[in-house]
């Protein structure tokens, strides 16, 4: 997967720079969501892998499936991807594009997994603390995992804070075995 992300990175950066220059970051982000979803469909994957179709035919078929969701500039981007046999990278390009957009907007999505449901007040306090700590606008998503026993696991980009009882017990067991 790291290899696919590496291949997708220059295309994501090019799309991001083009969208930023045209002040259309949100429009491109939405178009990439649609295109990534279409590229992930099994029938579309078959179409993109078909050796008998030219790059122009693949990009035209792809644009037809996406419908009116794509601007002309985005269709040109799809054509470039088709010419370079990179249409299958659209889900990775979309993820990288969103990351670049979040960096520009100084925003981050934070996932909090707890053993029990946390109150709205606790969530708001967590958002305030993480906003100060990360110096970014935080969007919080919470989920429940009973196997944590207690505490929480916080994921913010590449940063993981494991304050769960399960994680602490695992660290204790590791320390005792070494």
From TrEMBL:
UniProt keyword annotations, A-Z: ATP synthesis, Cell membrane, CF(1), Hydrogen ion transport, Ion transport, Membrane, Transport
GO molecular function: proton-transporting ATP synthase activity, rotational mechanism
Underlying gene: atpH
Primary location class: membrane
Gene Ontology cellular-component terms listed: plasma membrane; proton-transporting ATP synthase complex
SUPFAM superfamilies to which the protein is assigned, alphabetical: N-terminal domain of the delta subunit of the F1F0-ATP synthase
Similarity comment text for this entry: Belongs to the ATPase delta chain family.
Species: Marinagarivorans cellulosilyticus
Record protein name field: ATP synthase subunit delta
